[in-house]
Specification:
Blueprint: E1 4-7, E2 13-14, E3 24-28, H1 30-45, E4 61-62, H2 63-73, H3 85-93, E5 100-103, E6 106-109, E7 122-123, E8 129-135, H4 136-145, E9 155-158, H5 161-168, E10 175-181, H6 182-187, E11 193-194, E12 199-202, E13 210-216
């Protein structure tokens, strides 16, 4: 993942310093960005109690509270001694998949939760095709049982096959991308929701709504 820079002139965030006309300062390097992104995602989606964080019913927590918890209570304190509010804000704003939302000094994960939250999503009534990336091993189970959310609250679908393939690579080298007929889902009373520009949510995908299967390297 690329570093994040702050433009000196207007404070905007960029991944390429050349985009800042009058100079840029490094805000967070690529390695720290990946490390922080994974930790914040895990805390907001799966294990907030590990650092004593209390999410409200919609998944929100104060950014400053989150930063203090990481700095003071993460198992390796030295790893995050550098952390400030602006680092979390930058990682959230520049997340390529729009996983985070910021509002009034608070932050939450938009989707991907295993902890119980109640987030209101806009319904997607227009998409015709959606995509799900998975491993070859999981694909065999899917074709028997459909796509289930597993330990999460929702099944995650991508808006492009490329994003689905990228997701599938997290599960192994043999990547399978499933094309989902969104009209089929709606016809079965399964509503589709917009989690971000690239991600859609549904409670379940039955096998009959899988219209095409492709292998990806």
């Amino acid at each position: 993942m690329k570093p994040i820079y702050e433009c000196v002139e207007d404070g905007s965030l960029v991944e390429e310093p050349a985009e800042c006309g009058s100079g840029a300062k490094l805000l967070i390097d690529g390695n720290r960005r990946v490390m922080l992104s994974k930790l914040v995602s895990g805390l907001l989606r799966h294990f907030p109690s590990e650092l004593g964080l209390s999410l409200d019913k919609e998944g929100w927590v104060d950014v400053e509270t989150l930063v203090n918890a990481i700095r003071e209570r993460w198992r390796n304190k030295e790893a995050y001694s550098w952390l400030r509010v602006e680092h979390v804000v930058a990682v959230a704003l520049m997340d390529p998949k729009g996983r985070f939302e910021l509002r009034d000094g608070r932050i939450r994960a938009r989707y991907g939760h295993s902890v119980k939250v109640d987030i209101s999503y806009e319904e997607d009534t227009k998409s015709a095709k959606l995509y799900h990336g998975t491993s070859l091993q999981a694909y065999r189970a899917i074709m028997r049982e459909g796509i289930k959310p597993g330990g999460r609250l929702w099944v995650h679908l991508s808006t492009t096959p490329e994003d689905a393939a990228e997701t599938g690579r997290r599960h192994g080298r043999d990547v399978v991308v499933l094309t989902i007929d969104a009209g089929c889902l709606r016809a079965r009373g399964l509503k589709i929701y917009v989690a971000s520009e690239k991600v859609r949510l549904v409670r379940y995908v039955p096998t009959e709504c899988i219209s095409h299967v492709s292998r990806h390297a």
